[in-house]
Amino acid sequence: MSDLHIKHLVTHSGAFHADEVCATAILSVLYPQAEIVRTRDAALIEELAPSAIIFDVGDVFDHAQRRYDHHQQGGPLREECGVPYSSFGLIWWHYGWDYVRKHLGMSALLGAPVAHKFDLGFVRDIDAVDNGALQDGQEALLHPGALPALIVDQRPAFDNDDPEVEEQCFRNAVALARTVIDAKLRKIEAGERSDGIVRSALRERSDPRYIELPRGMAYDGPIHEARSSDDVLFVVNPSRDEWQLNIVAETPGQYGARKDLPAAWAGLRGKDLAEKTGVADAVFCHKARFIAIAKTREGIMALLAQALAD
Fold this sequence. Notes:
The structure is a single chain. By secondary structure, the protein is of the alpha/beta class. The protein has helices spanning 18-30, 42-48, 87-103, 108-130, 147-152, 163-204, 220-225, 270-277, 297-309, and strands at 8-11, 35-38, 52-55, 61-62, 67-68, 210-212, 234-239, 242-247, 282-285, 291-294. It folds into two domains: 3-192, no CATH class; 205-309, no CATH class. It has a five-stranded mixed beta sheet. Strands 6-7-8-10-9 form a five-stranded mixed beta sheet. Strand 7 and strand 8 (242-247) form a beta hairpin.
């Protein structure tokens, strides 16, 4: 069936959750001509089925019929971890690549790994929360500031039974989900590109103890993944009109450096840092000693030399 023959996007009515809200965010972009129908009426669902994508309702998972429920006995499980799919996971499985390609315009070279990485992170998190199947490391998904809770927060008040208000709240939740989804996908895509730049800098470094990057970007992941980069202690890069000297984390995503900047620099600025280091254009060193700044590359390389020797 062609895209134009999809006339309805059908999910359940009543209280909404992150899985069908996120699924709606994807499908309503891919099929903008389709009407969103929220119902639990089995007869209506069957009536609409020939021209619909049906998700999170109906007790059927069958891609050939464009039906993506997960509540039935024997619902599909993720092979890599055993977490049950939610409706969002099923929709992403079958429509995620189209969304990345058509909506965000990503090429096959970057789009496929972006869609896959998004699935194994963001989408699997929604699957786990919706099915009550959190794994180690996913506890933060229950925080009231996490996306599943923020989507539930969009529901109308407990004593507001106005169906028009409920529909508007659902659409507000879909808009929120789409904003977050698109931002996350673009961040993953940018991360794929920056990781390539960092890996190139690792291969080309002249001193095993530091790398120089053409601009600020995330670097800890590629450094820790590379087998030959255990000696990398610092990262140098320009940032607008100045240069930065950054530490490398001992463990990605956690505090603690492979090597801190010199203790004598901690918290110094301007003239005080310049006098302490002898680097005339030294600007600042954070009191936690994870970043120092100079106005020029020559200045930052002089600070680097001192940091390495410290």
